[in-house]
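[Solved] Which block belongs to which protein?

Original post:
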Amino acid sequence: MRVLVVDAIAPEGLAYLRERKFDVEELLKPSREALRARIGQAEALITRSSTEVTGDLLDHAPRLRIIGRAGVGVDNIDVDACSRRGIVVVNAPHGNVVSAAEHTLGMLLALLRRIPEAHAQLKSLEWNRAIYGGELFRKTVGVVGLGKVGSRVAVRVRAFGAEVLAYDPYIPESRGRDVGARLTDFETLLRHADVITVHVPLNDETENMIAARELAATKRGVRLVNCARGGIIHEGDLLAALTSGHVAGAAIDVWSEEPPRSDLLRRLIQHPRVVVTPHLGANSSEAQVNVAIDVARQLVAFRDGELVEHAVNIPLGDATAVAELRPFLALAECLGRFCVQLDPEHLASVEVTLAGAIPEKDQELLARAVVAGLLDPVMAGPVNLVNAHLAARERGVAVAIRREEETSGYKSLLTVATQTREGRKVIAGTVFDGQPRIVRLRDLDIEFTPEGYILVLSYEDRPGMVGRIGTTLGRMNVNIASMHVGRKTKRGRAIVVLILDEDLEADQLAEVARSVDADFARLIRLP
């Protein structure tokens, strides 16, 4: 796989890829024209925050299949545009969380103890011991967002003897107790916190979530810390609150414009009660190695057909269930590919039914795998877990998911029912020893492993039919690896599935069908 690296990452990550036979090209901080000229051959792209990955850039990248962001945020990547093209976007959400949490604590302590002011004065050889800071002990710290970084900040703040209030509407109270924080509503946190630190992503819900109204609701003398994303705290309103004295100080690592150029941001940076750093939260040596290797590992997993754990545009609800889910994903896609070749008419709807020991948290992902199997063979662009729902919507295919208790005696059962102009068709499968296996076609029970060249015939069963099939295929020098029969009554309608060692041409398929007066004949090709 050819990888284009456009922002500097730790050499350990590049070495990891090269050791695994990736073709790695480094094009650091390229111009827009240079990037457009080189990205056309890339199958994978690695970036950090400096390069904007837009829909326009993706138009120049027809071979691109995966983008790795060596860090947490993906603000610089148009994820929707990637999803429409079936490009997987992955990040490294855990590699720099300790670095970000520790930087937050460092900024907070520097702000409280007025360390930058004392440092600057002593550097100018001015001895001034009349600089009185404040303690964190017994302060109330409000943590907005109790995710990977926020929860670590809460634990560390508690170690200083502070009380922690937390606002996060997406986590249970038990999570707050685990990290020593008391969950509360946003307004209560604003009213009672001596220090407020934000740890949420930047999106429509969180942009300017702390502005003039929220600042007015805080205690006079409150201090604010933002080491998450620029724009969460309204910078103009913060400057006004600092100037009025309502906000006693702020510690800021991230900015709405990076590097800051506007007059407003320059005045905020130079304010005497503001501690600043140039977006260094993730910039520890350890974090840079961690995120580089994390992204590299995901590129290897993607190339090798594994499910990447940190894809931001694949709906993986429970990463711990990945290993358990893989065979069911393979089964789901296989059933979809089998269906579309068995009945290639216009697809109106698909219903996916899950029963038994199939993880409940990832039903949507399994449905996407079915749809990818159904649509990828019949569409010009790739259809995969990323864009399956979009592809179905664009083609007017309705997708439904449901669960039921009946497993027909199997430990797990995944059933796909498609509706086409030919009517409703059903196929079902399960997983044996980690391998997909089809157990039902139409209304007949029949078991076989779906792989390679699969000949499906339907005819009225009578003596000599199997012999005719074998003789006809023998004349064509086509070997039968295995044969499976499904029927309800003796000498009634039968479905015969033959696993072949060789492919069949259209005229050969027609000849086999004539030999047994088959009313249905299809050759299914599966990886």
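(Second protein starts here: sequence line, then its structure tokens.)
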Amino acid sequence: MLSALARLIVRRARLVLVLALIVVVISGALAAGVFSRLGTAGYDDPNSASSQAQRLVNQNFGGQPDLVFLVRSMHGTVDETAAKASGQALTQRLSHDPSLSGITSYFTTPALSLRSRDATEALVLAHVTGPDKGIDERTGEILDRYNNSSDGATKILVGGPRGLDLGRQTTSDVALAESIAVPVTLALLFFIFGSAVAALLPLAVALFAMVTTLAELFVITQFTDVSVFAINLVTALGLGLGVDYALLLVSRYREELAAGSDSGPAVVTTLTTAGRTIVFSGITVIVALAALLAFPPYFIKSFAYSGIAVVAFAVIAALVVLPALLVVLGHRINSGRLPRWFPKTGADNQVWGRMAAVVLSRPVVIGLPVLLVLLAVAAPLIKLQVGNPDDRVLPTSAPAHQVGDSLRQDFEGDTSDALDIVVVGTPAAADVDDYATRLSTLDGIVQVQTSTGTWVKGTRESSTPDDARLAQGQQRITAVITPDPASAAAKRIVEQARALPAPAGSTILVSGPTALLIDGIAAVTDHLALAAAIVLIATLIMLFLLTGSIVHPIRAVVGNAITLAATMGIAIWVFQFGHGDALLGFTGAPLNTAILLLTVCVAFGLSMDYEVFLMSRIAEAREHGQTSAESVVTGVGQTGRIITSCAFLLAVSFFTFLTGQVSMIQLFGLATGLAILIDATLVRAVLVPAFMGLVGEHVWYAPKFLARVHDRFGISESAPVMAESA
């Protein structure tokens, strides 16, 4: 099929390029509208009890507070006349804002939980209401209006879940990352290819993949929610895979030209050899990303939508658009070449081949220390803590982070982190009071508010009725807690609250940040086995079809697991333990489960990408009669420069995320970039040859019935296929 496609492209190259340009223009028009349709939430399981409770609170009780207005007195306490008047005026303005509901203010309902211990700060809580479409724009207008505003008596800072303003921050971060990644990548490509013309080709593949993927996301947003963070993956994978695939194809094409082929036959040979590897590699990465569809939160699904699309479009661009460009360019692909910067293929092969030969001759002496170092780096995994994103994902200078620090340090309990409990049914008032009494006695709960009053440590402190906490067949109870919502203590409170017998004739649904976190983690862990099984089974099958061995697929999976463990260990050390906070401007905190899952899937898929690059050449050499050791030397020699160049360029595109302001995206960029570099260097260049040196010819073992399966369905890049295709 690839041979027929190649011949068609050779005959109709200019028509292919015109059609590709039309696709890019149409996709660009659609892509322009995608950014306003992306969401900033989606970490929760929509089918969980906590999500059901959250929807009921938002529909019937004014909503859970997602904006926290911190009112700081500039002269004395918030109870003094000027500060109090300022706080009351703020409360009135917020109450008349149609974008807000559920206003709870210290200045109208004095409660100690809404005032700091030293009485210099007070809180006004609100919920951003209205349709999900445009909610980020409405929130942004509120933040712009109130953040850092002052009337001489008080100063206002805005925080809370919506106060993070992650949508606008992420869009800004992506623009900054692209402004750095594109010129740096172009300069590196020029150095690697030694030709200005050849260096531009990967960017053409990346542009096609990214623009078409953004158009695809625009279509998807018409039917379901998509996270704004999907754009980060589109940028990184689009640019990275564009470089990977173009480098592989262009390198093979230039080999064919150097061997004396004309442009047309060179394109046919390139597409039916390196093109076959790209198809196989793309499928491998897509399978890894498809596992994300098994998880309920739309934040995770969004990366499947974007990742699968950008990989597929990168493959299409590499197999259709790039070959057409090669046909049109012909030998002009080497225009502007700098011979001194681009080493000859033969010399390059000898360097990498000699390195592989050294490792093969001393597999234990060289391989064991590398393995031990990677395992030692993975040690922080045993102290992993997870949580949902809060203000600590932003720099300490961000208003939302400052509000969060004040809530944690200066307030008895953060009302915005409280447990929201919905009582569904019509129980007797006495039974509800009894439930509230027992709830208020739990360690870590400082106050329980119901429709009939307030309880503190088993005692009714207030009997003021609150009809806003009543709806048809439902009641809302709020329990203010002191522990950090991601802490073990907070999780224990939720478990105890859920274990309390509900008032007679009713059921209870517990929500709030901690309950949502617990249910979100459960949504991941409950589906983790299925996702892992999909990825592992598909990976084992595909690598068997490539190599004909049952040992190689197992070795590849174990090697990837070592890479991922080491990478996660570094990520935990930097982002959870906080060893990178001074450099990157964040505060160490529990890591987001969804981001960790995304990093693992992307890193695993890209590692398999390089596995395919290497093993396709090793298997080809093996088919030509070389021994196991000889095939390793040949395969590493032929792919060493390509793999390390691809890995370095792809890592650069991920490392540019470190320039952003959201720590969980910094984590994704750093961890994925490191995983790529570790895999392409220590694993591919050291551990793979060391393992094959230890096992020898047994590495190609397969039972006879599986060998027959491979003979019929296996995939190879053998020389006979190349000759026939040419």
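Accepted answer:
You had them paired correctly. Confirming on the second one: DSSP finds 23 helices and twelve strands in the chain.
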